């Protein structure tokens, strides 16, 4: 796992060093920089050593020194790829470096190499022979890659904070991204929160021509094309395929030359990963769980049952409210972009970092086996019927707008993708913003995506396909990558092994999603791996007590960052936002919902850290100290 960076343009190579330095937390074990002055190209990296600890230094070059690569991630089928290339007569300098496998594979196959890769990755290759940079991001968007292309200059990095080091890159807010954030609590799509900085999308590659300065993007894999249904089979046969596919994925994703731990939440997904690690013969399984002091959000007892069943080396950490809130500024700095979702995994990785460099997680299981039951909303009553009657299967621009449908049936089809739609609708955002962003509203954006997905994979698959283009990569995987890398830990997500994803999506949604139990098929596939109590336990997860926090330990920070005078000076939101949202919230629990205030506070804290203070390193200030 690494933090990578690069830049192409006359007279700009000196900026590679600060770009790399800003990502030290992503790779504390090694660093490297390569500069080709005549071609005006520079590459850099910070390395967290997982495979080939001694021989995997980057940037890495081929024997002729005409190809150079920087690579973040892991290629889990690299042993098989290496063996195949060796049978073709290709010789390797390292023992088992997957970075060298990528380099040799590109040398032999060119851009077609992407079809052969199984893993999580973001890499860029400087091809001096062809005068180009070529890069790609993995199929599901597990690893990040930001880029900017301006005035003939091109730059990329694993994290946004590295690109804002460039002197010509203004830290100017992208209002449309901010607009979407207030509904989704994360920033979706290609555009980042800052103007001029974009994100390479999942399963996307790029080619930058060093002579013409043209940037070309293309997709090499499409999740919507994986929904071609298998012939009819029994649920037992489907469960057996799921079990075998997940077992193989977990085995592939335990490839490492260092000890591996597993984040254990007490849910089905992470518990299945632990059981399959043991079934695959991993002897020393270390598991890590966190809980809150409040019993209502504590899943430690269920996690403990799994650890006892599989006799793991188990570690527990109970969070205090004060500890979590004190770390908020550091979390915001590491996240790169505004985020209003869950935070406890920060502490999972903090605890794991004491013992291991690799953390297995259960991320992705909910999306593959029902998307939190979101498809149920699309099939329930008037909502779906009105939606499907509209031209092209989407809401018409006439009387049945997203806003009217929300009033009629308690929400629009888009509301099933995040509860926050009940807090900041497109209509309310137009009232609160000082300037109106360009582009479509958030609800219409999701409704268009849902309509297109339903046309390909049916209404049940629509929720899964849209999740895999939005919330999965840009919220859950983004948060997992940033929080794990903040503690120099590599997080792995075997449920998102693309071969396993393809297998799951090939099972018809009517069989994959049970009407009453959306994880029925997965539960059937892994039942013998789990304690009986976990099989029947309702999904709980972490429900943050944000109302208590905002009225208690965070009240001073809310008053500081969301006060009327500050809003007026800042110029992003109308000062009336305080009177219409913040003041009613403090007046009483029934006057306003806490997620509104939480979303605004997390944005304001991000703005303070990145735009106003411009911290070069993670701030050591607590939330209380900022308020004072």
Low-confidence runs (pLDDT<50, min 5 residues)?
381-411
Euclidean distance between termini CA atoms: 38 Å
| Tally of discrete structural domains | 4
Strand content: 5-15%
CATH superfamily of the largest domain, called what?
Answer: Aminohydrolase, N-terminal nucleophile (Ntn) domain
Which class best fits the helix and strand makeup?
alpha+beta
Please give a handful of descriptors for the protein shown.
globular; 628 residues; alpha+beta; 28 helices; 6-stranded antiparallel sheet; Rossmann fold; Glutamine Phosphoribosylpyrophosphate, subunit 1, domain 1
Structure overview:
A six-stranded antiparallel beta sheet has the order 2-3-1-9-8-10. Strand 11 and strand 12 (215-219) form a beta hairpin. It is 42% helix and 15% strand. It has four domains: 2-221, Glutamine Phosphoribosylpyrophosphate, subunit 1, domain 1; 225-370 and 471-536, HUPs (Rossmann fold, 3-Layer(aba) Sandwich), CATH 3.40.50; 373-469, no CATH class; 546-627, no CATH class. By secondary structure, the protein is an alpha+beta fold.
């Amino acid at each position: 796992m690494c933090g990578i960076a690069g830049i192409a343009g006359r007279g700009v190579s000196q900026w590679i060093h600060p770009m790399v330095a800003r990502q030290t937390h992503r790779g504390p074990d090694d660093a490297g920089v390569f500069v080709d002055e005549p071609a005006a190209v520079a590459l850099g990296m910070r390395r967290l050593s997982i495979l080939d600890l001694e021989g995997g230094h980057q940037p890495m070059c081929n024997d002729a020194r005409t190809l150079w690569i920087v690579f973040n991630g892991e290629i889990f089928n690299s042993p098989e790829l290496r063996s195949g290339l060796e049978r073709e007569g290709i010789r390797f300098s390292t023992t088992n470096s997957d970075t060298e496998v990528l380099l040799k594979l590109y040398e032999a196959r060119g851009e077609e190499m992407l079809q052969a890769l199984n893993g999580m990755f973001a890499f860029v290759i400087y091809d001096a022979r062809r005068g180009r940079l070529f890069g790609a991001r993995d199929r599901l968007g597990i690893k990040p890659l930001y880029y900017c292309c301006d005035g003939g200059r091109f730059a990329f990095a694993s994290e946004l904070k590295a690109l804002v080091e460039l002197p010509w890159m203004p830290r100017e807010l992208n209002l449309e991204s901010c607009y979407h954030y207030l509904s989704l609590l994360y920033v979706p799509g290609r555009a980042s929160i800052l103007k001029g900085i974009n994100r390479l999308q999942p399963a996307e590659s790029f080619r930058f021509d060093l002579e013409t300065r043209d940037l070309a993007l293309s997709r090499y894999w499409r999740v919507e094309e994986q929904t071609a249904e298998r012939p009819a089979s029994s649920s037992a046969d489907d469960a057996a395929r799921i079990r075998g596919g997940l077992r193989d994925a977990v085995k592939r994703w335990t490839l490492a030359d260092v000890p591996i731990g597993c984040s254990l939440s007490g849910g089905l997904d992470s518990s299945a990963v632990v059981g399959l690690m043991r079934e695959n013969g991993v002897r020393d399984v270390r598991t890590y769980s966190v809980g809150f002091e409040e019993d209502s959000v504590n899943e430690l007892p269920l996690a403990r049952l799994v650890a006892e069943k599989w006799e793991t080396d188990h570690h527990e950490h109970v969070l205090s409210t004060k500890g979590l809130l004190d770390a908020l500024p550091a979390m915001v700095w590491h996240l790169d972009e505004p985020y209003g979702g869950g935070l406890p995994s920060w502490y999972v990785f903090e605890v794991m970092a004491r013992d291991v460099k690799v953390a297995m997680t259960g991320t992705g299981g909910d999306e593959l086996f029902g998307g939190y039951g979101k498809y149920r909303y699309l099939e329930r009553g008037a909502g779906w019927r009105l939606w499907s009657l509209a031209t092209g299967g989407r809401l018409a621009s006439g009387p049945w707008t997203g806003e009217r449908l929300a009033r009629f049936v308690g929400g629009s089809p888009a509301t099933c993708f995040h509860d926050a739609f009940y807090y900041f609708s497109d209509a309310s955002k137009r009232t609160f913003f000082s300037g109106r962003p360009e582009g479509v509203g958030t609800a219409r954006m999701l409704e268009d995506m849902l309509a297109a997905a339903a046309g390909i994979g049916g209404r049940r698959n629509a929720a899964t396909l849209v999740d895999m283009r939005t919330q999965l990569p840009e919220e859950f995987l983004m948060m997992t990558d940033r929080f794990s890398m903040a503690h120099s830990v590599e997080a792995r997500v075997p449920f998102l092994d693309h071969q396993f994803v393809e297998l799951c999506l090939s099972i018809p949604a009517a069989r994959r999603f049970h009407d009453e139990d959306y994880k029925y098929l997965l539960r059937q596939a892994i039942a013998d791996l789990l304690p009986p109590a976990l099989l029947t336990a309702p999904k709980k997860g972490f429900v943050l007590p944000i109302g208590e926090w905002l009225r208690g330990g965070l009240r001073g920070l809310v008053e500081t960052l969301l006060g009327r005078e500050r809003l007026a000076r800042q110029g992003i939101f109308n000062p009336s936002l305080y009177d219409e949202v913040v003041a009613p919230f403090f007046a009483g629990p029934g006057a306003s919902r806490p997620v509104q205030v939480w979303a605004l506070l997390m944005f304001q804290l991000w703005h303070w850290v990145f735009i106003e203070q411009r911290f070069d390193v993670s701030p050591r200030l607590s939330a209380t100290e900022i308020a004072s």
